[in-house]
């Protein structure tokens, strides 16, 4: 029975593990290319990048790298590198931006980028943790599963929070629309009343009434 439970937990860990990994490969075509990632608060982020010539993969191409938080503040940057790693821990939740800039437009046309973007559990160095805490492979997998479950739960809370924010915005918008409709109706009624009064006075002056 215990063996079956462990097997189920390990299978769940293997299913959840890829959630924090995003591998990309694309040609720049423009002097600056940016990618965006929605990340929660207090999450470890590791991004490996490599820039090379699209016609000759063995030829490296230098690029500048800049990572910004949702408020536009630079959290990490590198200049004139063909490959490297950018690592940081998010301080706020939101959309993070990583921008890659070629030295000029002509170089951008022949530059290709390979990016490995990892967050949370996928970005954690589990080998170092296992050596430091003297953990066996099964314990490490269970720790991965636990952290994956926490990430999923945290993402669910974030989605719930945003849903509540959207609901509040929708309610405020509906309230404003209702007030605007009432104000428009009141203006129409006042305008109609004034027009009737004006026409009545006009016809009385002309002695038509």
UniProtKB/TrEMBL annotation:
InterPro entries in alphabetical order: Emp24-like, GOLD_dom
Main subcellular localisation: membrane
Keywords associated with the record: Coiled coil, Membrane, Signal, Transmembrane, Transmembrane helix
Membrane topology field: Single-pass type I membrane protein
Cellular compartment(s): Membrane
Domain GOLD per the UniProt entry, residue ranges: 32-121
Signal peptide feature range: 1-23
Domain of life: Eukaryota
GO cellular component entries: membrane
Name of the molecule in the record: GOLD domain-containing protein
């Amino acid at each position: 029975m215990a063996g079956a439970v462990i097997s189920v937990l390990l299978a769940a860990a293997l299913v959840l593990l890829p959630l924090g990994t995003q591998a990309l490969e694309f040609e720049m075509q423009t002097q600056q290319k940016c990618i965006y990632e929605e990340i929660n608060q207090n999450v470890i982020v590791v991004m490996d990048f490599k820039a090379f010539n699209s016609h000759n993969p063995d030829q490296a191409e230098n690029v500048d790298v800049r990572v910004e938080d949702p408020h536009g503040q630079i959290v990490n940057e590198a200049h004139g590198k063909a490959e490297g790693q950018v690592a940081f821990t998010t301080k706020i939740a939101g959309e993070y931006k990583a921008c890659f800039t070629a030295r000029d437009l002509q170089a951008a046309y022949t530059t290709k980028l390979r990016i490995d973007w990892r967050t949370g559990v996928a970005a954690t160095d589990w080998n170092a943790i296992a050596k430091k805490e003297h953990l066996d492979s099964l314990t490490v997998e269970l720790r991965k599963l636990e952290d994956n479950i926490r990430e999923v739960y945290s993402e669910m809370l974030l989605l719930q929070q945003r849903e509540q924010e959207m609901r509040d915005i929708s309610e405020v918008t509906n309230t404003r629309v209702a007030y605007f409709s009432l104000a428009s109706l009141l203006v129409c009624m006042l305008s109609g009343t004034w027009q009737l009064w004006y026409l009545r006075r006009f016809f009385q002056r002309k002695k038509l009434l």
